Amino acid sequence: MTKESTSRTRKPKRGQTREALMTAALELVVKKAPFSALSLREVTKKAGVVPTAFYRHFSDMSAMGLTLLDESFRTLRQMMRQVRQQELPNEHMLRSSMETYFTYVRNNRAHFLFVSKELASGTPTMRNAIRREIRMFTNELAMDMARFPFLDHVNAEDLQMMAGLVVNNVTALTQEMLELEETDETGQQEVLITAEKQLRLIYFGVGMWRSDKNRS
User: Fold this and answer.
1) How many CB atoms lie within 10 A of CB 67?
2) Is this prediction's pTM over 0.90?
3) Nearest-angstrom CA–CA distance, 54 and 36
4) CB-based burial label for 23 (10 Å; 0-12, 13-18, 19+)
């Protein structure tokens, strides 16, 4: 067998091991403890691989945590960007955005529990990385808001503040969603309705705001 064919047969196995390690870590986070409290041996045992296999994919547990974090946010950013770029009436865009977001939360509960626990009690490296991701969300939202004609009276600084209010509210409601039982459809629907109402209030309030008249 040539080197080329050997490498081709091994790649899927390495990929499966990497995925198994990350899945094992998330399962332990859901059932047991924050990621930062897990040991390498716990994760490899759960994944069914020897500890040395871990180092073929990650330099240490911190590197794995950052990879999980990137995976948790990357797809979500792409999805929300697509929703915001749709040419829909404002009220429909709000509803569509929240439905898309909270559906993603429900379908990726383990990832969001991982992020929530790390933000509360993770290492400084993980907490700072999560805050950077949240700032990226806020910055992208502020740039999208600048496209809306009904917000053309609001300057960039105030749009950034408004985007921060939106992200902070949704982050708090995400925590509420995670605290509900997965089968509590009524509670989940209430969170979705609350999120949409809060966003409407924020957008209504900013409609009355005048950046040039509200400087301290």
Assistant:
1) 16
2) no
3) 16
4) middle
Domain 61-208 has CATH 1.10.357.10: yes
DSSP category for residue 55: T
Assign residue 210 a region (left: φ > 0; alpha: ψ between -120 and 50; beta: otherwise).
Answer: beta
CA–CA distance, 169 with 195 (Å, rounded to integer): 8
- Closest by CA to 64, choosing from 137, 134, 131, 129, is 129
Per-residue pLDDT of the chain (216 residues; tens, 9 = 90+): 444 443 333 333 555 899 999 999 999 999 878 899 999 999 999 999 999 999 999 999 999 999 999 988 888 887 777 766 665 446 677 777 888 889 889 999 999 999 999 998 889 999 999 999 999 989 988 888 888 777 888 889 989 998 999 899 999 999 999 999 989 999 999 999 999 888 888 877 777 777 765 555
Question: For domain 12-58, which CATH number applies: 3.40.50.261, 3.40.50.980, 3.40.50.300, 1.10.10.60?
Answer: 1.10.10.60
User: Could you tell me how far CA 49 lies from the centroid of its own chain?
Assistant: 28
Tokens representing 111?
């990832």
Q: State how far the Cα of 68 lies from the Cα of 30, in Å rounded to an integer.
A: 14
Classify burial at 35, counting beta carbons within 10 Å of its beta carbon; exposed 0-12, middle 13-18, buried 19 or more: buried
